């Protein structure tokens, strides 16, 4: 299948986890894919460009480079993000600023730089990586949840603003996904294997979400197969949201 034949896609955070799985999937379906990442170490045919989504000049230069090298830009996957733990007292103002800057403003900066190019595409789509943390009321995730809540609202606002100019904006909301990020969190636990087993047992379908499953949802929302879908937040969480289950 070649839904993305002749299209150019950028994936922020495209060198690891969900972003890398997405970059590989879009590439296998015909796209030229550029991973924008702090550490853009990706294998051919993916192209890596260093970019820091918390730095507007870096983002502008990276998007300019993509369009200069490949002549167009059709798909943006706003996926780069960082985590934070603890209740509302746990993080300093500087930490709040940093996480909101990367997770929310990062998407704003990339979208702002990309929109003039997306307007020229017959197949323009933006997909943001949200999280079930946006609405699930996860304990000990105040800052992270607030950042993803903002991503949720931003996605709806962007969808409303751009759907009439042919640019569809949607988001995926993964549950706990098996990525290097979650691997690092598990490794820091006293008993990583026991922690993993407990985490798996908490998921409705008894296992972590795979990065490839999230990538599949992103690819769908980025492709013409979802040509009439905008302003949708697609949960990829083993059914937690759809079944209205509480995180255990
Ligand atoms: P990951 O840590 O494996 O990958 C994140 C990538 O983003 C890394 O390559 C990192 O270098 C890059 N990155 C970080 N800060 C950046 C910046 N300022 N500029 C450019 N690149 C930057 O993480 P992941 O688990 O694949 O998470 C990807 C996205 O999915 C994040 O937005 C995260 O919030 C979201 N998410 C993850 C899970 C999960 O359980 N893993 C669940 C829900 C949502």
TrEMBL record:
Superkingdom of source: Bacteria
Cross-referenced PROSITE patterns: ADH_SHORT
Family annotation (InterPro entries): KR_dom, NAD(P)-bd_dom_sf, Sc_DH/Rdtase_CS, SDR_DHRS6-like, SDR_fam
List the keywords (alphabetical): Oxidoreductase
**What sequence ranges are listed for the domain Ketoreductase?**
7-180
PANTHER family, per database record: DIHYDROANTICAPSIN 7-DEHYDROGENASE
Q: What is this protein called?
A: NAD(P)-dependent dehydrogenase (Short-subunit alcohol dehydrogenase family)
């Amino acid at each position: 299948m070649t839904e993305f034949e002749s299209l150019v896609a950028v994936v922020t955070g495209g060198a690891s986890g969900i972003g890398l799985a997405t970059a590989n999937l879009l590439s296998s379906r015909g796209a030229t894919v550029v991973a924008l990442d702090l550490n853009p170490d990706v294998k051919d045919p993916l192209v890596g460009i260093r970019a820091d989504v918390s730095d507007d000049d870096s983002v502008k230069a990276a998007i300019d480079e993509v369009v200069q090298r490949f002549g167009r830009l059709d798909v943006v996957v706003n996926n780069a993000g960082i985590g934070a733990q603890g209740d509302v007292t746990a993080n300093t103002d500087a930490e709040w600023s940093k996480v909101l800057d990367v997770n929310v403003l990062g998407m704003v900066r990339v979208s702002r730089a990309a929109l003039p190019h997306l307007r020229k595409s017959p197949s323009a789509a933006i997909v943001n990586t949200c999280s079930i943390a946006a609405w699930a009321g996860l304990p000990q995730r105040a800052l992270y949840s607030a950042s993803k809540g903002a991503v949720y609202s931003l996605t709806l606002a962007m969808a409303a603003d751009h759907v009439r100019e042919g640019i569809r904006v949607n988001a995926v909301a993964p549950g706990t996904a098996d990525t290097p990020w979650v691997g690092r969190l598990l490794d820091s636990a006293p008993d990583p294997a026991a922690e993993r087993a407990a985490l798996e047992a908490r998921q409705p379908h008894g296992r972590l979400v795979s990065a490839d499953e999230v990538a599949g949802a992103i690819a769908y929302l980025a492709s013409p197969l979802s040509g009439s879908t905008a302003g949708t937040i697609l949960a990829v969480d083993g059914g937690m949201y759809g079944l209205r289950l509480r995180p255990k």
